[in-house]
C-alpha cells in the first residue's frame, strides 16, 4: 500500500504529494486525513495522508515512520476544503490543512544524539557524555562538548553516534484519578479502622468517583484512601477529562421567547431552508436591538430537531462571553466554544468534543468555521461586516467564503447577520444573490437612540482644549446623578498617539518600522504597536537635546486619567488590549460593569458590539475621525459601521438612549447618516463613490506586498512583478503600482505593493501562483518575501 503525503515543509518544492510505503503495522491506521511522521531527507517530519494507492512511479520508497492518529483528523470534506483554500488564497496546501487544526495538534521537533557503538569504543569525551544515557538532547550534547565539537562531528560522520529527530505533540490529554470500591465486604475491614470503613461504605454508594471529590465529600484524607487501596478494598485508575472553560459557572437554563410578527416573518424562510435541506445564502439586516440573537437561537433549535449540527461565528473574544452564556443557557452541554481566549489545552478539548460528536453546536471566532462537523444544518455569521473574519496571515481566507463553501457541500443555509452589513454583502442581497431579510425596528418598538454630532473645531474656538466637549461632560454628569451608566469609545489604546519635540519637530519613531511610537503611561515607555519594540520614555529630544518633549493625541489611558480629574466620583472600567491580556479578563470586566461596579465603560473597538446592558443610556464617541482619514477606500464604511454599532449600545431596555459623537469633520456623510440611523442612504452614497473609483463590489481586487531587508532588492523585485502582471493579465484588468506601502517598513523589512483590479480574470490564480513559486524558487535571494491577498480588507 502506498500513501500519498503532503509534508509539513511550506516551500514551492514540497507543495506536491510524496509517495511513502505503508508498513504492515500501520495499514489499519494510514487513512486519508491522518497525520503521519515520515522521513524527509535527514529529518523526520509531520505530513498529512491525502490519498492511498496500490502503485507508485517512484522506484525506491521510504516507509512511513509512524501514524499519529488512530482516526483521521481531517475528513474527506476538509481535505477537499484544504485544496480549495490553497487554490483560492494562493498558499501551500500544508498551510491550509494546518489552519483547520487546533494548535495542540501541531507537532514540534527536537533533535537528539543517540549512541550506536559500544561505550568503550567511543573517545573519552563521548564516553562521559553517554555514561548515564544512550540518548542525549542535541542542545545538551552541544553545550557539554563545547571543546570537542569536531570530535562529535567525526563520530556522526563515522556513524558511531547518530542524530535522531524526535517529534512530539504540543497538546496533552488531561487526566484525573478515579476511585471505586472493589467487590468486598465492609466486615473484612478491622473495626478499629473506623475511617477506612466509612470511606469504603461511601465509595460503595457513590463510586466510581473522582478521587479529589471523594476525599472532599467524605471529609477524609489521602492516607486513609491509600490504606484501603493497599489492602485491596479500592482501586484508582487514570481517566481522561476535558478542560472546561466554563467549569466554575452556574448558567441557569432559558426558554425560547415569543417572537414578534417581524421576527416570525424573518425566521420562516430560514426554517424552510433547514427543513428542506436547501443551501441558500441569507442576509439578515436588523437594526441594533431588533432581536437577531433570538432568531439565531430558534433557528439552531430547529436544526437540532432535525438531528443536525450548527455553527455560530462571532467576530471578537469580547462578544463571546455574552453570546456563549445565552447559547449555554438554551442548549446546555451541546455547545462547544472555540476562540483565541482559551488555552491551547482547552481549545484541544473543545475540538475533540466536536470531533467525537459529543456536541451539536459550536460558538466561536473565525477559525471555528473549520469545526470537524460532518452533518451541518446551519451556519450563522453574526456581525458579518467585521474585518476580523478575514485572516491576515497565510492562508488569507475570509470566514464568510469558507462558510458558503461548507454550506453548499452540506446543503445547509448560511445566515449572515448585521445592523450594518458590508457594502459587498448588501449589494449581493439587492441583486438577489443573497436573500434579504429585514428587521427595521427594535423589540417592543423601543426607539433608536438620539444622536448629536459635536463640532470639535467650535469647541477649540471657544477655548475648550479638553478631549471632552461641554455637551458630553454635562451628559456624563447627568448620568452619574441619575445612577445610569455610560460608554465612552476611543479607538486608540495607550496614553498618547505620539511624542514630539516642540523645539525641532522630531517625532520619536520605531527604529525597526516607519511608524511613530505610542506612549504608555504604565511603565513610562514608548511602544511600537507593529513590531512590539519598547523603549523608555526619553527625558530630552534625541535630535536637539531640548527638554520640550511633549505628548500629542490621546489614548485610552490618557482619557482615563482625564476622567479621574474631571469626574472624581465616577468609577471607570477601561477595556483595551492592555487591560484584557490576562485570560478571562474580558469576561471579568464586562461582568463587573453589568453588576453596576462602574459608572463608565471606556474602551476601544472591543466595546462597540454585542454589549447588552439595560442601564446604559449614554454613548460618547471621543474622536469619530480616527479611521476616516486612513488611505483605504473602505474607511468611510468602517467609520459608519463602528459609529452605528457603538451607538446601538444605548437605550436597549426601558430607559431612553442618547449618543454624542465628537468630530473634527462633522459634515462627512458617514457621520451625518449615523444621526438618522439610515443605512440604506449610506449604502446608496457609498455605491455611487465606489462606482466612480472602480472599487468593490463593482471590481474585485488583489494585493501583492513585496518585502526585503534591502531597499534596492525590494524595488527591483516589485518592478519585475508589476511588469509580469501587466504583460500576463487581460487588457481590461488594471495593475496599479509598484508603490511604497502606506507603512514603508515593518520589522526592518522594506515594503512595496501592487494592486490588481479586475472584473473577470480567469487566469488570475494561475498567474499569482506562478509569481509566488518563481520568487520562492529564487535561490539568489532568500530574504525576499511576497505575500498575496486576494480580496484584501486592509491595504496598510
TrEMBL record:
Cofactor(s), by name: Zn(2+)
Top-level lineage group: Bacteria
InterPro entries: DEAD/DEAH_box_helicase_dom, Helicase_ATP-bd, Helicase_C-like, P-loop_NTPase, PriA, PriA_3primeBD, PriA_3primeBD_sf, PriA_C
Recorded catalytic activity of this chain's protein: ATP + H2O = ADP + phosphate + H(+); Couples ATP hydrolysis with the unwinding of duplex DNA by translocating in the 3'-5' direction
Domain Helicase C-terminal, residue spans: 536-690
Enzyme Commission code: 5.6.2.4
Keywords: ATP-binding, DNA replication, DNA-binding, Helicase, Hydrolase, Isomerase, Metal-binding, Nucleotide-binding, Primosome, Zinc
Every Helicase ATP-binding domain range: 273-439
Assembly notes: Component of the replication restart primosome.
Entry-linked PANTHER family: PRIMOSOMAL PROTEIN N (PTHR30580)
Protein name, per record: Replication restart protein PriA
Originating species: Shouchella clausii
Gene: priA
